[in-house]
Structures are given as structure tokens and as C-alpha cells.
Write a structure and sequence with these properties.
- This protein has about 350 residues and is α/β, with parallel strands linked by helices.
- The protein has 13 helices and 12 strands.
- The strands form 3 sheets. Strands 3-2-1-4-9-6-10 form a 7-stranded mixed sheet. Strands 5-11-12 form a 3-stranded antiparallel sheet. The chain has a two-stranded antiparallel ribbon with strand order 7-8.
- Helix 2 links the parallel strand 2 and strand 3 (about 85-90).
- The two termini are about 15 Å apart.
- The structure holds guanosine-5'-diphosphate and manganese (II) ion.
- Manganese (II) ion binds near residues 154, 242 and 303.
């Protein structure tokens, strides 16, 4: 199957903007990046590639968010490479910082355990803030309220296949909620009680669970060396959220919002290191119809050390078809589970 070249999604609604179409109406969407001033060079590199492969034709706006003011130098740098409007948003401290319900002693012992097990970023408080913010807060920012769809972009990622159709209209017109390129198993220690907290919530609120959720995908972990039983029944397979194209109205909806409140109350963003990737994935997997999740197999994407590598004439990569990562981490790929269990 992998030797067969792919092009654009088949049997789906696709909109192509024609050259010289000056009246083209954009979907209600923004490119989005939470980024630090110090990452200017890396984000410019990512934007350049996204513009060259796709957005030069559409000129979708870009929203930059930060827990500090962006510097004039940062603004000048990104405005030179963005083809659409640019917006900036500073995150209020009340949203970004560790909330008052977090018990300092439990936080301290929690991160000590993670650090002792060499979990990345365990003791970096800003990383916990970032994961919590990306899990349940970014779409509530004043400047994001006007948008429905976002495409998340990180510094130092690569886009290496030409995409001709309007990706946001693809989401809209095919009624999709969540799009991804790469999916991985997680380090179970970072989400040790996420599943238990979630199951408790679902037992109390069964009405929120979607009858066509991706239950098997969330729980089957037969060929998973990384997440035996450490995550309490969650396979730890998740969509890698440094790339995501999604509908924020899903997060804003009652099911996800109420569930997120329960996660906040449990405190796992700090006592453990719940990532926004497993949180979005568990939320989408339980509270949305799995047919509304889309693997963008045609979008060439790389964030070290993994990638989605389409076999297509539209790509400028040298990798062989299906390349995912250096061989020593190949077993972290759980895309086969999604393919198996999402149909
Ligand atoms: P990793 O991919 O898990 O190693 O994490 P990253 O360091 O790439 O962080 C994820 C995203 O959040 C990137 O877009 C970073 O620029 C952004 N980010 C992480 N920490 C902070 C922070 O403290 N402030 C801001 N403004 N952005 C952050
Ligand atoms: Mn990153």
C-alpha cells in the first residue's frame, strides 16, 4: 500500500482557490502559534515552509500568543513572512499560571517522582503551564473567540509537500472536528491518573460520551511496549498536537468543557504532566464521533524526531515511503492502531 503514490483526499469535498481569484472568501480560521520571543528564528522557518507549500495561495491570518508581550523585533520578523493578517495575543497571568487549587506539597512530590524517572520537562513549571493552557484555555482567549478552526504551528517544524486545496474548508465542508498527521504512544507516568479521572467523569456523566467514540483506540495497547498498564487502562496513543487542525467549537462545547473542569479539579497538569496531546486525544476520542477525526496523510510534516512522510510527487523529501522516525524509536508509532480501530 505504501508504494502507491498519493495526491489529494479522494471522495471528499475539496475547494481549490483559482489563480487570480480576488474575491475568494476564507473560512473562519487562523493559523496559530504559542511561541516565545526567543524562538523567532524557529517560527520564521516554520512559517516560511507553510507559506511556500500552502498558505501563499490562501493568505489565512496568523495569531501569535505568548505569556509575555511580543517584542517589536519578533513582530517585524514574523510579519515579513506571513502572507495574511497577523494578530497578537498576550495570555493573562490568571490563565497561564499554576491555579490556586494546586497543593504545593503534592506538586513537589509529583514532579520529584517524574524527575526521578527522567521524564522530560518534569520540573519546568512553564511546561506544565503550557500543557494546561493548550489543553483547555487557548480557545477562550479574547482574540480567538472570533475563530472556529485553527492550525497549530510550532517553531522548527517542517512542511515539505505542496497542498493545493483549502485545508480549512476541507475541515468545514466535510464536517471534520480534528485533523492530525502523527500519532504516538506517551510516557505513561505523565498521564498516570488521566484515565481514571476521565472514567470517573464519564460514569457521572454518561450523557457526554459519544456513542461512536474511538473507544478501542483509546484502550487497546497490545503491541505497546511503552505504556503497559502504567496509564491505568489508557493505551496512551495520542495525536501529536504540535500539529493539529481542529474546530475550537468542539472544545467550547459542554462535554469537553465539563470534562476539562474535572481535569482541572484533579490537578494532573501539575501533579503529573498531563500533556495537551493526550488530553485533546482522549477528549476527541470519547466525546466526538470518530468519523470526524482525519489523518492528513498528504501533509508532509516533521517535528523532531518524527514525521508524516507521504509518498507523493508533491513532496520534497528524500525519505522512503512511510518513513516515520529513526529506527530506534519506530515502535512509538501508533498510527496502525488508529487505522485499525477508527473504521
Ligand atoms: P515539546 O515539543 O514538547 O518539546 O515542547 P516545545 O518546547 O516545542 O513547546 C511547545 C510549544 O509551546 C512551542 O510552540 C513553544 O514555543 C511553546 N512554549 C513552550 N513553553 C512556552 C512558554 O513558556 N512561553 C511561550 N510563550 N511559549 C511556550
Ligand atoms: Mn515542540
Amino acid at each position: 500500500v505504501l508504494s502507491k503514490k498519493i495526491d489529494e483526499p479522494k471522495n471528499m469535498k475539496l475547494v481549490h482557490k483559482q489563480d487570480g481569484d480576488t474575491d475568494y472568501e476564507l473560512a473562519n480560521a487562523t493559523l496559530l502559534s504559542l511561541v516565545r520571543n526567543s524562538e523567532l528564528e524557529g517560527i520564521v522557518s516554520s512559517i516560511r515552509q507553510l507559506e511556500e507549500t500552502w498558505n501563499w495561495r490562501y493568505n489565512y491570518p496568523f495569531t501569535f500568543i505568548n505569556d509575555e508581550e511580543f517584542t517589536p523585533e519578533f513582530k517585524k520578523g514574523v510579519e515579513e513572512v506571513c502572507s495574511g493578517k497577523v494578530y497578537y495575543e498576550v495570555i493573562p497571568k490568571s490563565i497561564w499560571e499554576k491555579p490556586a487549587n494546586i497543593d504545593p506539597a503534592l506538586y513537589k512530590s509529583g514532579i520529584a517522582k517524574l524527575a526521578a524517572n527522567k521524564v522530560n520537562y518534569a520540573s519546568l513549571e512553564s511546561y506544565h503551564n503550557m500543557c494546561r493552557f493548550n489543553s483547555g484555555w487557548f480557545y477562550r482567549l479574547e482574540g480567538l473567540k472570533k475563530f472556529k478552526y485553527y492550525w497549530r504551528v510550532e517553531p522548527n517544524v517542517n512542511f515539505f509537500c505542496k497542498v493545493d486545496y483549502d485545508v480549512f474548508k476541507f475541515m468545514r465542508d466535510n464536517e471534520l472536528t480534528y485533523g492530525f498527521t502523527v500519532s504516538l504512544y506517551d510516557e505513561p507516568l505523565t498521564v498516570e491518573t488521566l484515565w481514571k479521572t476521565t472514567v470517573d467523569f464519564c460514569l457521572a456523566h454518561p450523557e457526554y460520551v459519544h456513542p461512536n467514540g474511538a473507544f478501542k483506540w483509546l484502550t487497546e495497547n497490545q503491541q505497546n511496549p511503552h505504556s503497559t498498564n502504567g496509564a491505568g487502562g489508557y493505551s496512551t496513543c495520542h495525536f501529536w498536537s504540535n500539529f493539529e487542525i481542529a474546530d475550537m467549537d468542539f472544545y467550547r462545547g459542554e462535554a469537553y468543557s465539563k470534562w476539562f473542569d474535572a481535569l482541572e479539579a484533579a490537578g494532573g497538569f501539575y501533579y503529573e504532566r498531563w500533556g495537551d496531546a493526550p488530553v485533546h486525544s482522549v477528549g476527541v476520542g470519547l466525546f466526538e464521533d470518530k468519523s470526524k477525526v482525519w489523518w492528513f496523510r498528504d501533509i508532509g510534516y516533521h517535528h523532531s524526531p518524527y514525521e508524516n512522510s507521504p509518498h507523493s510527487d508533491k513532496c520534497s523529501t528524500d525519505h522512503e515511503p512511510g518513513y516515520f522516525a529513526p529506527p530506534d524509536v519506530y515502535d512509538q508509532n501508533c498510527l496502525p492502531n488508529w487505522i485499525r480501530y477508527s473504521m
